[in-house]
Give the backbone structure.
Amino acid sequence: MVKRYRLDEVAKIEEGKIIPRRKYFTNIGVPLITAENLKKLMLDGDIERLPKVNIVFGKHFKCAPVPAKTIILTKANLKDTNKYIYQSETELCIASDIVAIIPNETIILSDYLLHFFRWYKVNTEWQHLYHIPIDIPIIDIQHKMVQILNTIQLLLKNKEPLLTAVEGLPQHFDNVSVQIENHSKNLHHGFNQAQYLYNHMLHKIFKGEHK
């Protein structure tokens, strides 16, 4: 069974606050996400490099903490949402150029919402997020869908390191360059097929063709 909701019916949409003054930054605290460091985070995935704030002093500044499993987007340039979308693994604070979507996981899984935003094209102001329609199956069906989608994404995430490792093999072995080249081509083809399959599944799931 699939039911259609507005996004604000199944998730809390929270706008970030101003960035705290430097004196409130700490070595150990809650990571702060800004639009600038969101892009860096998407590249290296190292959340420990982000500036941190001590939310104990929250009464002295405006800070918007959000829980793990929150979906993080930039407020500006939402057309790049598919490129700069992050799912928090821990509690975070969000700055004024960030919007957070906190799913009600009794209705919609965070992973399901993450894949939805990798498919959905947002071309208007961030306030439009409240009214986005989304078709949501029961939780058990969502689990099955995201297991497949997550597996494909994990394969694609490892694409570059694997290709680099394979293409570097000839320097360690003699007389295998032709075999390595063929293997590399097969890997490229396999990853292209995996990307096609992922995009095709997103279209089928979120266009409602899985019903």
The chain is about 40% helix and 20% strand.
